[in-house]
Amino acid sequence: MKEAWEESRLTRSSRAQTEDNDGCCCDSSCCCCCCPTECRIFIKYIVCRSLGLFLYVMDIVTDITVSVADYRNGDITFAAINLGLVFTPGFLYVMFALTEMLSSNTGILACSKAVLWFLSFPILPLWPICRDLQKIYHGFLALFPSRRQEQLVHLNRPTRSYLLKFLEAFTEAAPQILLRLYKISLRRQELPFSKIETMEAVQVSFSLLTLSSKVISTYQKSVTTQQIIEGELEDNEKFTLPCCVQILAFLWWTSFLVARFEVMALFAGSLHGWLFLVIAVHVMLVFLFQTVASHKHGLRKVFIYLFTGFVFIFAYLEFNMKSRIKVATWFPYTVYTVLVFIENSIMLVVWFSSQKAYTSTLPEEEQALYATHRERLIFVHYGAFCCGLIMMIATFCCPERKQSAKDKEVTEEMRHMSVVAS
């Protein structure tokens, strides 16, 4: 079954002239498309893949390091949550694989496979690492013309490791950022974020870079619920943004995420459990919006809709939107930006009011100090949000790069070699 699945995926990938990018910025729409084939292969399969692998590994390593530090400091609850989040993507992937496996197997075979899947989820985070190392190795070999045809087949072979990376970004990196900022804000509730350890800053930075890069790589694809259900997120469409525009989009989402996580951590630091109410309302609004135009609501789709609602807490991705909503590309992002701006402002006002009431009984000198700190945090929030808004406008103002004759010639050359070798 797996071989037939991979063969059909590889055939569709070749027919659509697509390749496995996984966040890589080098394809027919990239600025380096005028480079020789060797240069394109080097940038796409070695440089970009190595950067993605570095971010993925460092995100996991810093999460585990911070968990160990929390345990040594006696924060067993935070240590356990941090460590649990590291294994959450693998567990969710196993749940997804089990639903697919049980639908095609029954009896003893299904039970034995289910046990193997459950035993394997702690080591599943290593799978994308092995996959990337394998592709980097084949990428080096593909630089030699005599071996290029054979190696491109290995490089373009479909895999579901992208789905695991996608889950890692939104179910590990994003919650880790929020959890860490929440813990930092609890140290001095009257002066949030005034005491940040070096390792915590490193962890938050790598998690933020991982999440932003995954938003951009998914932003350039037309993702549907069926692709998620079938595990076909790796079957990418070619990227449509030049390198310079990808940088603008990266700055756009990084700034938005900084503003989003800051206000959520401040709100949670003052009102604690009330943040779950905000998250629940947001998830339900997105869930209802996605089910409006869908007539079939199977159990798997319901879970997918709830998961995408959770994803939309942090970023907007065009799940099922291009086929449902016939509007300009920038319109849904504008609606999402307005929604997030309203939510952030409400949480910021509630936090400001609670902090002001909390410090009202203190001496005037301390009140002035705390008021200045609050104003700085508000300035950081709206500064980051406005920066993201400017980057978003700049991203949509830049036109998508059209393929030139030379672009098509080089792309066709790489595709032809892959098809012939297969």
From TrEMBL:
Source domain of life: Eukaryota
Keyword match DNA repair: no
GO CC terms of this entry: plasma membrane
Alphabetically ordered keywords of this record: Cell membrane, Membrane, Transmembrane, Transmembrane helix
Membrane protein topology class: Multi-pass membrane protein
UniProt-listed Pfam families: XK-related
Location in or out of the cell: Cell membrane; Membrane
Family: Belongs to the XK family.
Stated name of the protein: XK-related protein
Annotated organism of origin: Scylla paramamosain (Mud crab)
